[in-house]
Structure prediction request, 122 residues.
Amino acid sequence: MQLERLPSIAFKSPAIALSGVVDYEMYTKFRTQFDNASEEKIVVTEPSTLGGDPEVARMMGEDIRFASEMEPHRRFVFLGKAAIYSAGTTFMSFFARQNRYLARGTRLMIHERKLSKKLVVL
Prediction:
């Protein structure tokens, strides 16, 4: 599904504004703001984070993914500001590609997962 690019005005007052470490405290703030935005057609989530707990990021992301599937008439948008590191990029990955935006100058950090290679000798 191709969505139109949102104009700048759509980001004036984000429904969800998060900053700091991705942790259970951030999740609580996220859920409170997310629940308060239940009537909004466009729900902008504006995080800035240097990282944190990837499993908490996945919990927030699953909330976004589930709401996107259950309420297709609503649009859930990510607007990264300043820094989106580590767990922040995990969270961003749950938003549809056409709903991922970054403010000018925002930095992303994406970790490469290295798997050890174990040889099995027969």
The beta strands are 16-19, 42-48, 75-80, 83-85, 100-102, 107-109. The mean pLDDT is 92. Residues 37 and 73 are 14 Å apart (CA to CA). Residues 13-109 form a domain with the 2-enoyl-CoA Hydratase; Chain A, domain 1 fold (CATH 3.90.226.10).
